[in-house]
Amino acid sequence: MKIVVTGGLGFIGSHTVVELQNEGFEVVAIDNLSNSSIEVLDGIERITGKKPLFENIDLREKAAVQEFFKKHTDVVGVIHFAASKAVGESVENPLLYYENNVNALVYILQEMIKLPKANLIFSSSCTVYGQAEKMPITEDASVQPAMSPYGNTKQIGEEIIFDVANVTNLNSVLLRYFNPIGAHSSAEIGELPLGVPQNLVPFITQTALGLRKELSVFGNDYPTEDGTCIRDYIHVVDLAKAHVIALQRLLKEANQEQVEIFNLGTGTGSSVLEVITAFEKVSGQKLPYKIVPRRSGDVISAYANTDKANDVLGWKAKLTLEDALEDAWKWEKKIRS
Ligand code: UD1
Question: How many CB atoms within 10 Å of residue 263?
């Protein structure tokens, strides 16, 4: 069964390609290499023994999307990761984000609904909940006004999918990720942030290697136990596996609604200082850090209630924060060696 993975050479995409191939799916990875490297294909091959088909396509080019689906009429599912995801950049360049994250989705949907089976797994984010009133966050928590163009593109993406499903054969699972971290335990694939990492864990691993002087902890005056923000850090391999399960649900036509939403997290919140302590434990070295003022746009706390994913998908995160940090650390050391 042929599955298209857009952003297939990216961080979550590449790990999902591995899990799909492990389950026997034929994968076509689409990527424009804007935030990834062609060498990721070799990493995937070293893990699975197979290179996925690859198409270098920019999904903002409508004609290229049309041509792709004309060529691959036997596609039974699409997992759509390709998107820009830097919050600060989205504030600076909103049109890039709307073009990349919204136009591309529209073009893909326009072609998918012509297929006999239109099954879409969409990468959404816990950012749609903003600062939720209640922790842990359930899927029925309200969607809050987006705090950035990036966050808005995820909300708009979800709405587009609901509207299209209403009037077409589209079936879709919207996966709201909490904080994906880690790397494949083989250290063959992992995260490759461009420039200075904006996210916590790549910044930590680069600091530990001496590429950055020290980590800035954004605020220790939040109303949490140690004053730093709480997030739900989920190992990227657990996350990738959830995509395969969600896809299988659509392929088996086991979904109860045309569009279903699931939170993907571990269900456990960790503070920034707890992440630092866990990293120091797995790496065996002290991490230099300093406390700096809060970063604008950060919510105090976000962690998932994962009951729905556990009960309905039969999926549960198995790997711990320590596992994820250990794999991220192994990966960082390997790519710098
Ligand atoms: C961020 C985005 C989120 C997006 C996700 C994608 C914001 C507000 N949110 O999540 O919408 O889906 O990335 O990757 O940008 N931290 C530090 N020092 C650092 C970096 C981070 O203290 O150098 C802290 C942050 O304040 C936060 C935690 O670490 O409390 C996690 O930050 P990060 O990894 O950037 O993820 P989010 O902000 O949760």
Answer: 25
For a ligand 1 pocket test, name from 127, 279, 290, 325 the mutation site with the most ligand atoms within 8 angstroms of its C-beta. 127
E strand map for 159-245: 170-177, 179-181, 215-218, 230-231, 233-235
**pTM for this predicted structure:** 0.98
Q: Which residues line ligand 1 (CB under 6 A)?
A: 85, 87, 125, 127, 151, 179, 198-200, 203, 215-218, 229, 231, 272, 295, 297-298
Classify domain 2-180+235-265+306-317 by CATH architecture.
3-Layer(aba) Sandwich (3.40)
Q: What is the pLDDT of residues 157-216, one digit of tens each?
A: 999 999 999 999 999 999 999 999 999 999 999 999 989 999 999 999 999 999 999 999
Work out which ligand 1 atom sits closest to the CA atom of 203.
23
Residue-wise pLDDT for 31-48, tens only, equals 999 999 999 999 999 999
